[in-house]
Amino acid sequence: MKLSFIALISLLFIGCKKEDPQLGNPPTLAEASFTYSVSSTSANVLDLTANSQNYQCLWDFGNGVKAQGATATASYPYAGTYTIKLTVFNKGGSRSTTQDVVIAQDDLGLLNNPIFTMLTGGASGPGFKTWLIDSNNAGHFGVGPDPISPLGNVPEWWAAGPNDKPGCGLYNDRYVFHLNGFKFDMINNDDVYVHNSLAGSFPGSFQNLGDYTAPYTNQMNESWNLVEGLDTTITISNNAFIGFFSGVHTYRIVSITDSSLFLQYSHHAGGLKWYLRLVPE
């Protein structure tokens, strides 16, 4: 089983492929182009639109934050010149274009988002916050159906009891959310816990209490991206993730306070919703 997001990132290093009769041509420069406009909310917020709405699109905002989709919104609390990069993909390959944008003044009000404050400690705090799995309490890890049942966003099929998964590479991991640059550090102490169907993608993995523990290095200086809406989500960049790995990197915030973060996320093959409850270190 391949990890779709990781595979998508790896295409960046392959570049544009030559024409293949079966795959077709890679995107053109015109198809990889994009436009942007200043949001009505702030001169430091840009609304981005890819010219090709039907291609897979990967954005790098130049501020440490990445996103996917034909449209995106980039926020720049600090003044400076940023290079926005869009990479589009089709069966024939990929193509990238860039544009430089100049942010004239700081808008530190963009950092006053209540979720930013709860997740990182806020602009008046140390600028970062470290979270870990709430292993001492029941329900810190669990699974339920996808789509969810009338019971709602709860791990109705199975929920872990206190310290139910010792020695699996789950409870000793730390997840650090930084406010400056939206940086994310995954400190996993050399191993992680992954779903059994993904064990083949992690060399050296071994069965452990139902799923697999796998060797893994710390993933430092990655980024996190918050998208607010009916479903408010956090997406973690590249090979970093949070908690038990199910093959995805986007997590829905079910609830968040200064002292608790309850996440729901999908399974790479569908049919399951996983749940994690974290607390500050």
Overview of this protein structure:
Helices cover 6% and strands 42% of the residues. The protein is mainly beta and 281 residues long. The protein has 2 domains: 4-107, Immunoglobulin-like (Sandwich), CATH 2.60.40.10; 113-280, Lipocalin. The strands form 4 sheets. It has an 8-stranded antiparallel beta barrel with strand order 8-11-12-16-17-18-19-20. It has a 4-stranded antiparallel sheet with strand order 4-3-6-7, with helices on one face. A hairpin with a 4-residue loop joins strand 11 (174-178) and strand 12 (183-187). The protein starts with a helix and ends with a strand.
Structure at a glance:
The chain is mostly beta strands and 281 residues long.
Which descriptors apply to this entry?
Lipocalin; disordered N terminus; eight-stranded antiparallel beta barrel; Immunoglobulin-like; mainly beta; four-stranded antiparallel sheet; 2 helices; 281 residues
Write the layout of secondary structure elements.
Blueprint: H1 4-14, E1 34-38, E2 45-50, E3 56-60, E4 66-68, E5 71-75, E6 80-90, E7 93-103, H2 114-120, E8 128-133, E9 141-145, E10 158-159, E11 174-178, E12 183-187, E13 191-194, E14 206-208, E15 211-215, E16 219-227, E17 233-236, E18 250-257, E19 260-266, E20 272-280
Antiparallel strand pairs: 1-2, 2-5, 3-4, 3-6, 6-7, 8-11, 8-20, 9-10, 9-20, 11-12, 12-16, 13-15, 14-15, 16-17, 17-18, 18-19, 19-20
